[in-house]
Amino acid sequence: GTMPRGTLPAIFARPAAAQQPQVLRMDGKADLILLGERPLVAETPEHLLDEPVTSYANFFIRNNGGIPDAVTGDPRAWRIRVDGEVNTPLDLTVGELESRFPVITRQLQMECGGNGRSFFTPQTRGNQWGNGAISNGEWTGVRLRDVLMAAGVKPSAVSTGHYGADPHLSGATDRPSIARGMRIAKAMDDDTLIAFRLNGQPIPHIHGAPVRLVTPGWPGSLSQKWLTRIWVRDVMHDGAGMGGTSYRVPRMPIVPGSENNGRDFVEQESMPVRSILSSHAHGTRLPAGTRALDLRGAAWAGDLTVRAVHVSTDFGATWQGMNLAAPSNRHAWHRWTGRVTLPSDGYYEIWYRATDSEGRMQPHAAANWNPQGYNANPISRAAILVRSCGLSS
Ligand SMILES: Nc1nc2c(c(=O)[nH]1)N[C@H]1C(S)=C(S)[C@@H](COP(=O)(O)O)O[C@H]1N2
Ligand SMILES: [Mo]
């Protein structure tokens, strides 16, 4: 029990295998893993992320506060305000957004900043995500940049600050549940959207209807749901979820488990390279005699692309390159496929890891431990049992 978890057989190491996961019960949603009820948080098991474009059913859920009441009446009348360091503050309805600016559709990966958190030792505070706080939806909306340009961003602009309609869990009406912001450069990126459709449909309520930000490749917390306001700031935004150790990582590696107030930390921005296996669930049993596995999955790397995905079925002794498809557009995930062969029946682990376009590979263990558990992206391992009569259980 005192061994680092990374050296335990995968069948014992994964938190979801160790405990009976609780299942989300929600209309139209698959059996997501319920990580919390207040706020509502649910993770998608990796094997449900087998679709190239993530459907509503399989889309993970992360809230920091309550869920606002659904809009009654015309959702196109919902208003968002753009103010602060701009020449002309704007007050736009969703209808005006759609008619005044070019409308584009992109596949964009959105990943919680805490994805992979459960792989840290010692455990850090926050939702104990595996790799399933990731989605690759097809989003339709307008570029945040076009809206900011229409307002006229002043040279003094440093960051954005985002506000949404969800109530704080305490019930206080003057406290946002989360209000994060990003450097102006990311707000001006071609792929940062104010979105009003997901997979060709109005955005489902739980995912931020009628409008949300989609800030691909950076922490999902920058993709404000139920968007009401973008405040352009002349300093780095300091709303709820900014500063200290929130969505910030050590500039220099710190001792795992140590106390830190985050003074020497930097913002978590582009997310690290990560991969999932979607063809075979962890813990899959296969009939005796199975000698080949056709594997599938996805890989992504924040603002970067992925150069390679490798798989090992012999605990890392040998690695095999997988076929990696190009993403359908920048900031969409890559899909990968490949066949591996097994020499016999028995207990196997499929180890899978991606390498980003700058040559950085998923590490052997979660690196750069930090108090709130960001950027853990170790090589993943799924246990597979090819059943033969000699094996019990
Ligand atoms: N208004 C609002 N927007 C929010 C949040 C929130 O709590 N309130 N959570 C953020 C976080 S931490 C993540 S990871 C994503 C999750 O989006 P999803 O629930 O649609 O998957 O929404 C972000 N946007
Ligand atoms: Mo998140």
Helix content: under 10%
Radius of gyration over alpha carbons? 21 Å
- N- to C-terminal distance: 22 Å
| Secondary structure category | mainly beta
Mean pLDDT: 95
Low-pLDDT regions: none
Shape: globular
Order of helices and strands: HHEEEEEHEEHEHEEEEEEEEEEEEEEE
Helical segment tally?
5
Beta-sheet strand percentage?
25-35%
Distinct ligands: the ligand Nc1nc2c(c(=O)[nH]1)N[C@H]1C(S)=C(S)[C@@H](COP(=O)(O)O)O[C@H]1N2, molybdenum atom
Total E-strand runs: 23
3D structure, described in words:
Strand 4 and strand 5 form a beta hairpin. The strands form six sheets. Strands 6, 7, 9, 10 and 11 form a five-stranded antiparallel sheet that branches. Strands 16-23-22-18-19 form a five-stranded mixed sheet, with no helix packed on it. Strands 5-4-12-8 form a four-stranded mixed sheet. The mean pLDDT is 95. The protein contains five helices and 23 strands. The two termini are 22 Å apart. By secondary structure, it is mainly beta. The protein binds the ligand Nc1nc2c(c(=O)[nH]1)N[C@H]1C(S)=C(S)[C@@H](COP(=O)(O)O)O[C@H]1N2 and molybdenum atom. The site of ligand MTE has 21 residues, from strand 3.
